[in-house]
Write a structure and sequence with these properties.
- The complex is a heterodimer of chains A (about 140) and B (about 160).
- Chain A is about 55% helix and about 0% strand.
- With about 140 residues, chain A is mainly alpha-helical.
- Chain B has about 160 residues and is α+β, with helices and mostly antiparallel strands.
- Chain B folds into two domains: about 60 residues, GYF domain (Dna Ligase, domain 1), CATH 3.30.1490.40; about 80 residues, no CATH class.
- Helix content of chain B is about 50%, strand content about 15%.
- Chain B has a four-stranded antiparallel β-sheet. A two-stranded parallel sheet of chain B has the order 5-6.
- Chain B is rod-shaped, with a radius of gyration of 27 Å.
- The C terminus of chain B is likely disordered.
- Classes of the chains: A mainly alpha (about 140), B alpha+beta (about 160).
- Chains A and B meet through helix 1, helix 2 and helix 6 of A and strand 2, helix 1, strand 5, helix 4 and helix 6 of B.
Chain lengths: ~140, ~160
């Protein structure tokens, strides 16, 4: 028998592919907006109602300013504005790069964010939110 | 007996032997819908309709019942995890307005996927939790917005008012 080509394995792109593409595009769009419009100077950014009403800092307060500092390469001021946000961004970046590399070389990958990591994330967010409102840890507040 | 098939890329492959075709079925290169022309036939037919291949499809595509009986591990639906993360973040951080919308969308997608293929996915509870947290977050956002408007959007700070 002569050697024949095998049919290619081709499957339709999954819904996860589209969601990743849309989220990626949204992230890049937001990065572009934050890059060109300084959150400290422009007032069109959504305000934190929790902060406005209570005067306390929520775990997300300062994230926009922190993102502005990150895209401008100013990591010291990024850490000052929202250290947790910078850590999460860095971890997501590393994980994303590893995940994309596994996908490209068609190696088996698990989930991007395993469900058992939800508790550590929740605890980190709550602890960070509490600490940054204490006078002792005021260096965590923006 | 030799067969020709049309692959997923629309190209014609073969003629190949029955063993080769079984190998392709096992590798997922062809499926029951693949158009096939057998040697003694005059027109193209779906591979699954040929009697000699009927049982090979029964083997490679186990029924949902069989897979649960053999103890296949169901995996957590990714959208359920995403929905729950969005729910938690939107509750805790700045009543995150765009994030709770995202949380609702992710949780709904997760619920529909889990309902459609319960033999593959788990995480129904997580999806519901994400949905509830996202909705609570939107309600909270609206309430805070109303308080803010009622106080004239002025410097109403509990912390500076003796709290």
């Amino acid at each position: 028998m002569t050697q024949v080509n095998s049919p290619k394995i081709k499957s339709a792109p999954s819904i996860g592919f589209f969601v990743t593409a849309i989220l990626g595009a949204t992230f890049l769009g937001m990065a572009a907006v934050v890059f060109f419009f300084n959150p400290s100077a422009y007032g069109f950014y959504p305000i934190c109602l929790f902060h406005k009403l209570t005067g306390l800092n929520c775990p997300g307060c300062g994230a926009t300013r922190s993102f502005y500092a990150v895209v401008h390469g100013n990591f010291q001021s990024a850490l000052k504005d929202n250290a947790l946000f910078v850590c999460v961004l860095a971890l997501a970046g590393v994980r994303g790069a590893w995940y994309a590399q596994r996908k490209i070389f068609r190696k088996p990958v698990g989930e991007f964010f395993p469900a058992k990591m939800l508790w550590p994330l929740l605890i980190a967010v709550v602890v960070f939110g509490l600490l940054r409102n204490l006078p002792m840890f005021s260096f965590l507040s923006p | 007996m030799l067969y020709k098939i049309i692959g997923a890329d629309g190209k014609e492959y073969g003629p190949v032997t029955e063993e080769m075709l079984r190998q392709w079925i096992a590798q997922g290169r062809v499926n029951a819908q693949t158009r096939t022309l057998s040697e003694n036939a005059t027109d193209w037919q779906p591979l699954g309709s040929l009697t000699e291949f009927l049982n090979s499809f029964a083997v490679v595509t186990p029924t949902p019942l069989a897979s649960t009986l053999t103890g296949t591990v169901r995996k957590t639906n990714g959208f359920a995890t995403g929905g729950l993360i969005c729910g938690i973040v939107s509750i805790l951080c700045c009543c995150g307005f765009p994030i709770n919308i995202l949380g609702i969308i992710f949780s709904m997608v997760a619920l529909s996927q889990i309902n459609r293929q319960p033999e593959i996915y788990e995480g129904c509870g997580m999806a519901i939790a994400g949905l509830v947290l996202s909705i609570v977050s939107i309600v909270l956002f609206v309430v805070l917005l109303l308080i803010n408007i009622a106080s004239g959007g002025s410097n109403f700070h509990w912390s500076t008012n003796g709290f």
